[in-house]
Write a structure and sequence with these properties.
Largest sheet: 7 strands, mixed
Distance between the termini: 31 Å
CATH architecture of the largest domain: 3-Layer(aba) Sandwich
CATH superfamily of the largest domain: NAD(P)-binding Rossmann-like Domain
Number of domains: 2
CATH topology of the largest domain: Rossmann fold
Shape: elongated
Number of strands: 12
Length: 293
């Protein structure tokens, strides 16, 4: 069997070292890294991956699409998909900014402690960011009642519309609010009724302060995906992993990080196992659920 070659296509000028190291640790034999990739320039790179090997050897080539600009990476991924034809294709993993693997890990962690058949009420703070959007989309797909929270109602409404286009059955709404959460505000009311709260804001930004935590007394699970101090949720430590505090279980970024890494490595194995694999958020969630089944 030929060496496993992973083509890392990154939209940033310098390809992510994090993604490269994970690929190596996942057993990739040869890593070809390309930065500054755009939807307009990616096709020749894909052709190189498609036409250098034939038959069963083609399965030993795969593509990873990443970068900090999620919209740009999604445009690249769409172009990659449209470049394939018939059986001439290779496995593809799409994980810009780690958004898809992180969101999948967060949803799997929450699923350990609640049934989505019960239609839990979920709030995603920082829901217009790359990770927040994916968390909201996956929760909506699972059947939760999801509220996307952001400082801008216009932006959160735009995210809601985008998710509804992908998940037509989504029960999802938008709300605006600033931190600290004002008592009596629409955001405070949503938090008070939440079963699950996921904070997915920018690094070092507190989205739920101590007063907000008191308002969230009903929440069964609170997940903070910010690993950079100060915490995104007051009182949550980055290493928390289902740490009980009263009736609430707390997760920090590192607490879901080990599962994120397992999903990432499992996804790399999958794209070499099936040349028709195209792994986006939903597919990565399924991998995460299989790992904890």
């Amino acid at each position: 069997m030929p060496n496993r070659v992973l083509l890392q296509l990154d939209c940033d000028p310098q390809p992510s070292s994090f993604d490269a190291i994970v690929a190596v640790d996942a057993g990739v034999d040869v890593l070809l890294r390309h930065g500054g990739v755009t939807a307009a320039t990616v096709e020749p790179l894909v052709h190189g991956a498609m036409f250098t090997r034939g038959g069963t050897d083609l399965a030993s080539t795969a593509i990873f699409v990443g970068g900090s600009d999620v919209a740009a990476a999604e445009a690249v991924a769409d172009r990659v998909r449209r470049t394939f034809f018939g059986p001439v294709r290779v496995g593809v993993l799409v994980d810009p900014n780690g958004a898809n693997t992180t969101a999948s890990a967060a949803v799997v962690a929450a699923s350990r402690h609640m049934s989505f058949a019960a239609e839990p009420r979920c709030v995603v703070l920082g829901g217009t960011g790359p990770v927040g959007q994916r968390v909201a989309r996956l929760l909506a797909g699972k059947g939760g009642h999801v509220t996307v929270a952001s400082r801008s109602l216009e932006k959160s409404t735009e995210v809601v519309r985008g998710i509804q286009a992908v998940v037509p059955r989504a029960r999802i709404a938008a709300v605006a609010g600033l931190t600290p959460v004002a008592i009596g505000s629409p955001l405070a009311e949503v938090i008070a009724g939440a079963d699950l709260i996921v904070a997915a804001g920018a690094a070092g930004t507190t989205l739920l302060d101590a007063a907000g935590r008191q308002a969230a007394a009903r929440a069964r699970v609170i997940i903070d995906l910010n690993a950079v101090p100060p915490a995104g949720v007051a009182g949550v430590i980055s290493t928390d992993k289902a740490r009980p505090e009263g009736d609430t279980l707390l997760y920090g970024a590192l607490g879901v990080g080990s599962l994120k890494m397992k999903i990432h490595k499992g996804a790399i194995a999958r794209i070499f196992a099936a040349s028709d694999a195209f792994l986006d958020a939903e597919e990565l969630l399924a991998i995460g659920e299989s790992l904890t089944a």
